[in-house]
Amino acid sequence: MELAGKRIVLGVTGGIAAYKAAELVRLLTGEGATVQVVMSEAAARFVTPVTFQALSGRPVFTDQWDPRVANNMAHIDLSRAADLLLIAPASADFLAKLANGLADDLLTTLVLARDCPLLVAPAMNRQMWENPATARNIATLRTDGVAIVGPGSGDQACGESGPGRMLEAEEILACTVAHFQPKLLAGKRVLLTAGPTFEAIDPVRGITNLSTGKMGYAISRAAQEAGARVTLISGPVCLPCPVGVSRVSVSSALQMHAAVLGQIAENDVFIAVAAVADYRPARFVGQKIKKRLQAAPPTIELVANPDILGEVAALPRPPLCVGFAAESENLAEYAESKRRSKKIPLIVGNLIEDGFAGDRNTLVLFDDDGQHPLPPAPKIDLARQLVARIADLLEKTR
Ligand code: C5P
């Protein structure tokens, strides 16, 4: 339950994306939030208040003059009771009103009267989004401290394609959860590797390591939630890129090596989570190798891959380097010896039997202060604890 005890006012304005807001209510309440829906008049033409009432389990407000509010102060009462005001979808018209401080209905009045943070998820046609007037309004809202999530890009209800579509409900949920995380890495830049590498033998075969990428992806999400600018260099995995993280997809260790060294400058932290193949075939065979049962089986000559983490740690001004050690036995001994040989301040150890491929893991952090066990937990929780430790170490090394 990522939002247990949080009170969220969800403002829905007029746009076809209002149907996605219905799903968003389900996701927010599913994470333990109390959701109070307030709709603009236009929104109620797209989806009826009854839908939101059923999903949120609370009466929906649409009218400034609602007789249910005895003192006519719904705009004050609703905002005072909230931890977050979330507007999804936020139409071009609503953003324009917001940027100019208009308050001509319940939702705009309540936004103006708020004393809690405001998160908006714009949704509109691509030309409306690109219109200089909208760009001006968005710039004003950013200056005013309003958090803007999205919009995404792609097919639009009007049949066009481009920027302006509202983020998916899952993505807005992730942004909402991120909003409540402490900003321990604000202003920092973090580079990560995650997933396996694939070392091709011929066009259809290769050598790889077993790795789902889940731990690395969870850490990239946790670093992004903590306010860092995050770049994730990812080997081949089947995971969506966390919202707000920029991903570079690679396949082989050599590609991962080139991508990391090309991006490493200006980063404050490097976290090597990838299960990089130690060796690659010395030669790539351009055509599929044919089976010849009568002949001796083919042999594959291997050469060593570069140690990406070792090289980054040996740079003249290295970022804070964090390594991983997934071991099947003798965790403390192997992890500590890796930490020393790579000359890195922090290594994260885990026993393969504890966390491979699943959504939970058990970790031990090894640094100059000794060992810090992190008990079994979902990978995202462990990732947040690791980020907190990294923030501490950054603070110490300043
Ligand atoms: O010594 P070992 O290779 O097992 O160390 C594992 C750590 O080093 C992990 O953090 C892994 O991402 C990183 N690594 C790397 N490049 C390699 C091999 C491992 O960055 N070629």
Spell out the blueprint of helices and strands.
Elements lengths: L6 E6 L5 H13 L3 E6 L3 H4 L2 H8 L17 H7 L3 E7 L1 H9 L5 H7 L5 E5 L3 H5 L1 H12 L3 E2 L3 E4 L5 E5 L3 H11 L9 E6 L3 E5 L2 E4 L5 H12 L3 E6 L11 E4 L3 H11 L5 E4 L6 E3 L20 E3 L3 H6 L6 E8 L3 H12 L3 E6 H4 L4 E8 L2 E9 H19 L1
Parallel strand pairs: 1-2, 1-3, 3-4, 4-5, 8-11, 8-13, 11-12, 13-16, 16-17
Antiparallel strand pairs: 6-7, 9-10, 14-15, 17-18, 18-19
Helix pairs in contact: 1-3, 1-9, 4-6, 5-8, 10-15
The structure holds cytidine-5'-monophosphate.
Cytidine-5'-monophosphate binds next to helix 12 and strand 16.
Q: Number of helical segments?
A: 15
Tell me what the CATH architecture of the largest domain is: 3-Layer(aba) Sandwich
Number of domains: 2
User: Structural class from helices and strands?
Assistant: alpha/beta
Give start-end ranges of low-pLDDT stretches.
none
Distance between the termini: 35 Å
Number of DSSP strand runs: 19
**The CATH C-level class name of the largest domain:** Alpha Beta
Q: Write down the overall mean pLDDT.
A: 94
What is the helix fraction of residues, given as a range?
25-40%
Cα-atom radius of gyration: 25 Å
User: What fraction of the residues are assigned to beta strands by DSSP?
Assistant: 25-35%
- What is the 3D form? elongated
CATH superfamily of the largest domain: CoaB-like
